Structures are given as C-alpha cells and as structure tokens.
Amino acid sequence: MPLIKSNVHTHTVFCDGADTPERMVLAAISAGMDTLGFSHHSYTPFDTSYCIRDYGAYRAEVERLKGAYAQKIALLLGVELDLFGQRPPECDFVIGSVHYLKEGEKNYPVDLSPAAFASAVGEAFCGDFYAAAERYFEQVAQLAAQVSPDVYGHFDLITRFNAGGAFFDEGAARYKRAALFAAQALPAGAVVEVNLGRLFKGEGDIYPSVWLLRELNELGCRFMLSSDAHTAAALGFAFDETCARLKKYGIRQLVRYKGGVLTDVEL
C-alpha cells in the first residue's frame, strides 16, 4: 500500500483530462487510495480550450460517485483555481495556480507548448525570458491575497519547457530572486504541492525544482504530494519513490487529505 493514500489534483473529461470521473475513481481505489479530490480547471473566459465546460453536470456526476463509492473511497469536489479564473459556487478545497502571463489586456499561456511559450515571451516581453519569469512569480505571489488557496499548485510552472536551460538559466541570480520573492510572499505554513505531472510524462522533474523545494522548506512551508493526473494511469505515479527523495532533501513530513481533513504523514 502507498504511504500517501490520496490525490486531490485530478482532471477529467469535464476539463482537459482524458478519462471520466468514474474511471479515475476506480483507478484511485485500485492504487490503494482512500481519498480522491477532483480539481477541474476553473473557467477562464479568455481561454475556454482547457477549462470546465459544464459545471452543473460535473458537480452532479461527482455527487453521484460519492454515493456509489462511499464504502470504498472518500471523494472531494475541488477546483484548480487560476489566478484569473472564476471561483465555482462551492468546493471542498482550492488549488491556486498560475497558468498565464498577463501583459496589458492579453493573457499568454505558459504551458501550452515550447513554441507558444517562446512566441508569448517574444511578443509580450521582447524575448526577455527573465522578465517573463519575474512576471510569473509576481502573479504567484498574488495568489495568497487574491485566491487564498488551500494548496499552491505547480509553483514554478514557468519552467515547464525549460529542460536543459532551453529558455533561461534557473541558477541565474535574476531568476532565483524572482522565485524567492514569490516563496517569501506565502503565508506561514502554506501548503505547496510536490507535483509529479511532468515526471509522469517523462518531460522533466518535479515541481518545485529541488533548490526551490529546499528554500520553501526552510521558510516553513508544508508539502503535499500530487499526481496532477490528467489520465487514470498517472494517479499515484512514483509516490513512494518521491517520498524517499523528499526525505533525503530534509523534508520529514507531508500533508494530505484524508476525507475532508488535512492530515500529517511522517516520512
């Protein structure tokens, strides 16, 4: 059985996921989880390509599944609320995330594709990738005041396509200052997810990057393991291996949802 028996960063066909909510429930049960939280992408009127499309039907389906599988797993109805997204009328938890760089009246996605990211930085920041990173982390810092999330999602998503330093040097002083500005803006005891979505796809490592993870730990942040699952196969991927890694980095405890309660887990 896995040490961490819950995942609350879960997407389905109701936004940009590949599987139905019920398929995700069955996969979570099979993986030995006792809690699964659904976190649809909040509605963003300027980009409807990936976000929730029918909240009423989505909520009804999750409520149906809560009843149908009540004896096997606890299900939570949450949201991944973008800084510029619309908060749903009710939810059990909120993951706060930044997916766009706002410049003037335009919002540029940071995680669509390498070409789209390069084009956005060229248009909005005259090709200055460090300026783009500064804007991104300024917006991450805004999450605390504007969203007040229960969990901070993929903290350094700006590195999504930066494997091998493709766009900027993550060790550069200018980049690190920007990231630490956001880290220091978090409230005491903030819960930051250790997001395994990119690792599952074989496209890079965890979010946050290890150096930033250590800094957040020094600042007193708490951490939650997250699949950021867009397919059933991603649920619980590399959870135990990542727990072992985190312990080596000096992290002794994680938090996770057990039902609707945030619970400590010793590593």
Give me a quick take on this structure.
The chain is of the alpha/beta class and 267 residues long. Helices cover 34% and strands 20% of the residues. Helix 4 runs parallel beside helix 5.
* Overall mean pLDDT: 97
Strand content: 15-25%
Shape: globular
**Could you name the CATH class?**
Alpha Beta
One letter per element, helices H and strands E, the order comes to EHEHEEEEHHEHEHHEHEE
- How many beta-strand segments? 11
In the CATH classification, which architecture applies? Alpha-Beta Barrel
Residue share in helices?
25-40%
Count of alpha/pi helices: 8
Helix and strand content put the structural class at alpha/beta
Q: Briefly note the CATH topology name.
A: TIM Barrel
The count of domains is 1
What characteristics describe this protein?
TIM Barrel; 267 residues; 5-stranded parallel β-sheet; alpha/beta; 11 strands; two-stranded antiparallel ribbon; globular
Please explain how this structure is put together.
With 267 residues, the protein is α/β, with parallel strands linked by helices. It has a single domain, classed as Alpha-Beta Barrel (TIM Barrel), CATH 3.20.20.140. The protein is built from eight helices and eleven strands. It has helices spanning 21-30, 55-68, 114-125, 129-146, 173-184, 197-201, 210-218, 239-248; strands at residues 6-7, 35-41, 74-82, 94-97, 100-103, 106-109, 151-152, 191-195, 222-226, 253-258, 261-266. The strands form four sheets. The protein has a five-stranded parallel β-sheet with strand order 1-2-3-4-7, covered by helices on one side. The longest helix has 18 residues, at 129-146. It is globular, with a radius of gyration of 18 Å. The two termini are 14 Å apart.
